[in-house]
Write a structure and sequence with these properties.
With about 325 residues, the protein is α/β, with parallel strands linked by helices. It folds into 2 domains: about 80 residues, Winged helix-like DNA-binding domain superfamily/Winged helix DNA-binding domain (Arc Repressor Mutant, subunit A, Orthogonal Bundle); about 210 residues, Rossmann fold (3-Layer(aba) Sandwich). It has 15 helices and 9 strands. The strands form 2 sheets. The protein has a 7-stranded mixed beta sheet, sandwiched between helices. Helix 2 packs across helix 7. The radius of gyration is 22 Å and the shape is globular. S-adenosylmethionine (SAM) binds next to helix 9 and helix 11.
Length: about 325
């Protein structure tokens, strides 16, 4: 009789959340910031974090086994990965983004219920304005992501000679700020829900871009875009929507674009056969727990939807991990 396959991969998948939980706990405790200045004993770390010494020791051991920190006779210290991205105050700090993952963590625990009901378990409104702390984590998480790994997205967007950018669902406004800094003569309008843009205004001002980036309360289910634009960006937005929602957003955006206007869509996308890649498939599932209508789309689907609103795809760029975004450039027909 043929031996059954080794069950080890199942155990590995079923316990993979242990690693996520250890990382998120350490970020919430700000442990990597405590270790920023060099090796510390477990007792000194517990002192700094005001945490239980034995439990802190267990967490440090796990983080060290995960190669995020290292243990030496002098104590525990950050390894380069943690040192570059997990220390508060450093330019690439990913803390808010990982804390935001922590906020979502309990939602994944109810994935079976979400799949059964077809609705997100927690109301997305909580992080879209209703709950101030969660909204703040969400908006600042997006900001830090865009400033760090997301800069690559901004670098493939060419708005030379353009003057008015609509940043639809622009969230923190980070891309608008980066793009106006890169392209002389460009002004941008971040269009997002009122509870979100109150944080966008702070972020844009902190980047010194307040004069060229306006932030306007806007609901893409209800409102037409408020102006006329010669370019538009829809970044990380369409993964919240089923095809009907996407078509609605594209219709409204294309209607506000001048003929010849450039329309960029950047997002996690699936292959045209919708069978992968793994990150896209998992991200689509994440969007099912985060938003009632979450879905990842393929380039082929979006090409057809863009065509229907008078836009032609003129290029696509696939950015590898850790971005995992595909950037579509389209132009409105003259
Ligand atoms: C993942 S974020 C992307 C933010 C930003 N474009 C970026 O790439 O960093 C999705 C954005 O869509 C916004 N959004 C969700 N529902 C919306 C709606 N009905 N109208 C306008 N914006 C909405 C959210 O507030 C959020 O800022």
């Amino acid at each position: 009789m043929k031996a059954p396959p080794d069950p080890a991969p199942l155990i590995e998948i079923a316990t993979a959340y242990w690693g996520s939980a250890a990382l998120i706990a350490a970020v919430r405790l700000d442990l990597f910031t405590a270790l920023a200045d060099g090796p510390m004993s477990a007792a000194a770390v517990a002192d700094a974090l005001e945490s239980d010494p034995a439990a802190t020791d267990a967490l440090l051991t796990a983080l060290s086994a995960m190669d995020l920190i290292e243990k030496s006779p002098a104590g525990y210290a950050n390894r380069p990965l943690a040192d570059a991205w997990l220390v508060d105050g450093r330019p690439g700090f990913l803390g808010p983004a990982l804390r935001y993952n922590g906020d979502n963590y309990p939602l994944w625990g109810d994935l079976d219920a979400v799949v059964r009901a077809g609705r997100a378990h927690a109301a997305p409104d909580a992080y879209l304005g209703d709950d101030e702390a969660r909204t703040r984590n969400f908006v600042y998480g997006m900001h830090h992501r865009a400033l760090g790994v997301g800069r690559a997205v901004a670098s493939v967007i060419d708005l030379a000679g353009r003057e008015r950018l609509a940043d639809v669902g622009g969230g923190p406004g980070t891309y608008s700020a980066l793009l106006t800094q890169r392209f002389d003569g460009l002004k941008a309008e971040v269009l997002d829900l009122p509870g979100v843009v109150r944080f966008s205004r702070q972020i844009v001002a902190s980047m010194g871009a307040g004069e060229r980036v306006a932030c306007t309360g806007f609901d893409y289910y209800a409102d037409d875009l408020p102006g006329s634009y010669d370019c538009a960006l829809i970044s990380g937005v369409l993964h919240r929507e089923q095809p009907d929602g996407v078509k609605q957003i594209l219709t409204r955006t294309a209607a506000a674009l001048e003929p010849g206007g450039a329309l960029y869509i950047s997002d996690v996308m699936l292959d045209d056969d919708r069978a992968g890649p793994v990150f896209g498939a998992m991200f689509a599932l994440n969007m099912r727990v985060m938003a009632h209508d979450g879905r990842c789309h393929t380039v082929a689907e979006q090409r057809a939807w863009l065509d229907a609103v008078g836009c032609d795809v003129v290029g696509t760029t696939r950015l590898p991990a850790p971005i995992n975004y595909t950037v579509i450039r389209a132009e409105k027909r003259r």
